[in-house]
Amino acid sequence: MVGQVDEIPCCQFSSRTRSHHIIVATALEVCEQRDRKGLSARARAGIVKEFTGISDPYEIPTDAELTIDTAAIEPDQAAELILRYLEREGFLEPVASASV
After folding, report:
1. Is the pTM of this model over 0.70?
2. Would the CA dihedral through 93, 20, 12, 99 be positive or negative?
């Protein structure tokens, strides 16, 4: 592994006025466990070249509007945080929430 990877970017999207950067922070080990296609194992074996976080460095972004640590919360809570962010930014109409 080239450096420590603490988070993997989930999505970046743009509106007409600006770009929005949301990061879902996931430990590299967890990403490898969830890797259904086996790309991480192939990268570690040298079959896949320039694989971010393994054979290619990953620079943790510092400009995210929202960072979610998936080690600390459940997937439905992470989704709720993203929805609340989109509401605050005016992309979604606010709705009542049972969690977060």
Report:
1. no
2. negative
Question: Which CATH number does the domain housing residue 48 bear?
Answer: 3.40.50.300
The length of the chain in residues reads 100
Domain limits for position 61: 8-71
Q: What is the rounded distance in angstroms from the CA atom of residue 66 to the CA atom of residue 45? A: 34
Predicted confidence band at 98 (pLDDT cuts at 50, 70, 90)? Answer: low
Please indicate whether residue 40 is annotated as part of the active site: no
> Sheet of 66-69: strands edge to edge?
8-14, 19-25, 66-69
How many domains in the chain?
A: 1
The catalytic residue among 15, 19, 97, 99 is 15
